[in-house]
Amino acid sequence: MDTCIIIGAGGHAKVVIDAIVLQGQYKPVAITDSDPKRRGSSVMGIPVVGGDEQLPELLGKSIKHVAIGVGSVKDNLARKRLFDMAVGYGFIPVIVVHPDAVIAASVVIGRGSVVLAGAIVNPDARIGENVVVNTGAIIEHDCEVQSHAHICSGVRLSGGVIVKEGVFVGSGSVVKQHIRIGEWATIGMGSIVVRAVEPHSSITAVPARKSKMRTVL
Ligand code: JB2
Fold first, then answer.
1. Ligand 1, pocket-test mutation among 66, 70, 96, most atoms within 8 A of CB
2. Rounded to the nearest whole angstrom, what is the distance from the C-alpha of residue 7 to the centroid of ligand 1?
3. Ligand 1: which residue has its CA nearest to atom 12?
4. pLDDT tens-digit series, residues 138-160
5. Which H, E and C letters describe the chain, residue by residue?
6. Predicted confidence band at 74 (pLDDT cuts at 50, 70, 90)?
């Protein structure tokens, strides 16, 4: 089995490591983390060997594969930076698919993307590079999720939604069919998105609107 390194030793790394182990294709053998206090500790039995300055040495030890274990809260820039850095060093980003994710045969997934437990990705959806489809998210048919986006736990993207590069869609949000979300936009947790979202903008939960008066007897 090929070995792989994990970048980041926090909560998201645990979930990624668990999925990699269950997937059974790669064996995580070392973690880098920028926090010096984490050096010498371990996550799920995998040692934290130091910061990212260790990466060239690990590559020299024939560890060729990498998974980004740093998640994101409203910002995917760090994940993009780490992905670009690892690729720049010559690492191969692994595609991680939890065995309990459901992915249609026609779905295309780019390198370094992670699809976690209970997620569903339906026919003809396209997933770019370094995307996170987090636990229980639903990506409906014909959606396009571009690189470095993070579709958080429990999100539902209806059919044909376009999520541009670097977008963050917060937990539990629902996006109406064929909506386009501009690059590096941030959608706050629990939002109901019924209109296009401007690039680099930030929106939060859309409040329920009164549709029609109704008398309840
Ligand atoms: O440049 C870096 C770097 N920046 C932060 N290089 C490396 N190698 N590591 C880095 N880190 C490390 O990522 C931090 O020192 C820290 O140990 C870890 C982030 O851990 P944390 O638990 O704070 O967040 P997370 O990214 O693992 O998880 C967040 O995102 C997930 C999607 C949390 O909000 C989770 O609750 C969420 N599920």
1. 70
2. 9
3. 8
4. 999 999 999 999 999 999 999 99
5. CEEEEEECCCHHHHHHHHHHHHHCCEEEEEEECCCHHHCCCEECCEEEEECHHHHHHHHHCCCCEEEECCCCCCCCHHHHHHHHHHHHHCCEECCEECCCCEECCCCEECCCCEECCCCEECCCCEECCCCEECCCCEECCCCEECCCCEECCCCEECCCCEECCCCEECCCCEECCCCEECCCCEECCCCEECCCECCCCEECCCCCCCCCCCCCC
6. low
